[in-house]
Amino acid sequence: MFALFDEAGKFLTGRVLSEAESSLQVELESGKRVKVKAANVLLKFDKPAPASLMAGAQALAPQIDLDLAWEFAPEDEFGFADLAADYFQHPATLEQQAAALLRLSEAPHYFRRAGKGRYKKAPADILQQALAAIEKKKQVQAQIDAWAAELAAGSCPEPIRQQLYKILFKPDKNAPEYKAVVHAARETHLAPLALLQKAGAISNAYQFHWQRFLFEHFPKGTGFPDLQAPPVADELPLAAVQAFSVDDSSTTEIDDALSVQGLGSGEVTLGIHIAAPALAIQPGSPIDEVARQRLSTVYMPGHKVTMLPDAVVQTYTLEAGGPRPALSLYLTFNEADLTLLRHESRIEQVPITHNLRHDQLDQAITAEWLQDPAAEPGAPLPDEFVALRPELAFLYRLALTCKARREAVRGKPETFTRPDYTFKLEGMQGDEPHGDETVIIGTRSRGAPLDLMVAEAMILANSTWGQLLADSGVPGIYRSQASLAPGVKVRMGAKALPHAGIGVKCYAWSTSPLRRYTDLVNQWQIIACVRHGATAALAAPFKPKDTTLFAVISAFDAAYTAYNQFQSGMERYWTLRYLQQHGITELTATVIKDNLVRADTLPLVFSVLGAEGLQRGAHVQVRLGQIDTISLEVSGTVLARLDAAPDTLDEETEDELELATSLTIAVDVDEAADTDTPTAPPSAATPAD
Predict the structure, then answer these.
(1) Pairing between strand 298-300 and 303-305?
(2) CA dihedral (473, 477, 481, 482) positive or negative
(3) What is the band of 689 on the pLDDT scale with cuts at 50, 70, 90?
């Protein structure tokens, strides 16, 4: 018979089948036959049977007092049999030797392994440290058990409440607070979110989502330091135009405005005027540091977190009532066929006469009114806006033409047929929602005349200025898409590459410098091109292969993605609240993939039962299940197939699939339970083989 420790430290016994000079052929108690090195064998015996030996040794080992054994153990290296002889009797029985071997191997804080079956006792100071660590771990485990019991009983301990978002989203999985949540979730068979909600740690769903976002992205809060917006120092020429902007009523960061000159002359000039904070804010300045840290304005229903302080925004925004500093792009077209004849960029003061608002004018300014001189507006329209009819009509004709030309380049028409949804919260008290407001969900048709005018003008500006940067050898921040093939995403980089989705040779965001940091960076670069021409590369703040520029691209891409995901999550929250507030239990929806459907009249993608086998684009009636505004989950069941509609889904479908995801937390209750045994510091002890 034999006994040994394997490489994992497990004590094995078995029967010797054959013996060579340096190895043994043995049969383990499990019946498995293996070859082992003779040097690894610690005990060889004829009797008792291995199972009997192990049972006796395991019963005897706990009786060995470790403090007493350590006290009289030799200072020098010793063998397990030596300890057994000193502790029990001389000579020690085989069972006592095995018990000593087991006890020594399970107490590395008292005795460190010095070889096969050989040990040396730990120094006294190291032992005391190890014992203190063991005691501390026992106390921590007792605290974990107590907290877990409180959670299971429906009460949330204050330390867990204070670390709620860290536990759920950026946990230290060795922290006792995290372990208590995991332990309680296992014991109660509740999901962590449900457990914490039941224990009162989460009482307001809206605040839960909002505070989670702040924890991840604004841990120091959303307030700004005391910053003074510097004025534009240069004396700028006054543009001979009357410009107007088009935005929603909630927009305060008015970045862009349009003007039209030369109607009826054969050549018409479109002016695209962009607010120019880059004329005053310098790279590396305190305001720039704030903008670079935030990278973008964060939008959500009823609230927003701006990239720049409001006082700074108001200094440069294109508010109506007077001239405003602007970076202008003038594009001159043949009035008959809208061929682009030339373009020019200028830095100037631009008179802003009107701030048009989508939500107030979309119903009035219709395609029919713009294309038919005899048509009436779709809704009553103030005279001051009626006076803009010729300019608006030209802009709409130009927008349709530009869109058609882009579609010819991209190889197929854009199929964004669904509306943009708008959210309005009624009953708000203060500047921020509390989550119990009444939500009104409206729509704005994608491609409505005013929307199309602005969109096509911004594409012209971003593509034209992107090409200007490339031609001048000045680096910029571009968005590109290699093709329209499925799965090919839009990427950000410093190279002027084609954007297949838009149908342009290059595309550099430059038209929203008050709310996107990439646009502010590009504006600095464009201003250098306008001012310095052929020597712009020498004067531009960012040089070719500038590592700072690449860092901005990486940081912006990550932040912008996170902000958009948060906006989508909050819109999903308010959509679920809309269902609750209106008592909606059934919806019509369209199958978009597998068991996912998209509601026909709401911005909601969710999973349903009963969609198996239905083709993409199928129209169904769905009964809604339980709504959870914490996890942002809602499910449904298909009640009926409404028609045999063909696949009518547009190219936004792939992006929409992300909207179906519910809240993801970092708590994993399926991880293996913590079975670590307390050990001394590495210098004192290591587990036995």
Answers:
(1) antiparallel
(2) positive
(3) very low
Please, are residues 181 and 163 in contact by the beta-carbon 8 Å criterion? no
To the nearest 10°, report the CA torsion of 621, 623, 628, 633: -40
pLDDT at 680 over 90: no
- Compute how many other C-beta atoms are within 10 angstroms of the C-beta atom of residue 633: 19
AA identity, residue 664: T
> Is the pLDDT reported for residue 684 higher than 60?
no
Instruction: Provide the edge-to-edge strand list for the sheet that holds 11-19.
Output: 33-37, 23-28, 11-19, 2-5, 41-44
Say whether pLDDT at 403 is over 90: yes
Residue 591 near residue 613, CB atoms below 8 Å: no
DSSP3 helix / strand / coil % (the chain, rounded to 5): 40, 25, 40
- 3-class SS of residue 429: coil
- State how far the Cα of 261 lies from the Cα of 240, in Å rounded to an integer: 9
How many other C-beta atoms lie within 10 A of the C-beta of residue 113? 19
Using only C-alpha atoms, the chain has a radius of gyration, in whole angstroms, of 36
DSSP 85: H
What is the distance between the alpha carbons of residues 418 and 603, in angstroms, rounded to a whole number? 10
CA dist., res. 413 & res. 426, Å (int): 38
> Cα(665)–Cα(202) distance, rounded to whole angstroms?
14
DSSP string, 581-615: HTT--EEEEEEEETTEEEESSSS-EEEEES-TTPP
Cβ-in-10-Å burial (0-12, 13-18, 19+) of 20 comes to exposed
The length of the chain, given as a count of residues: 689
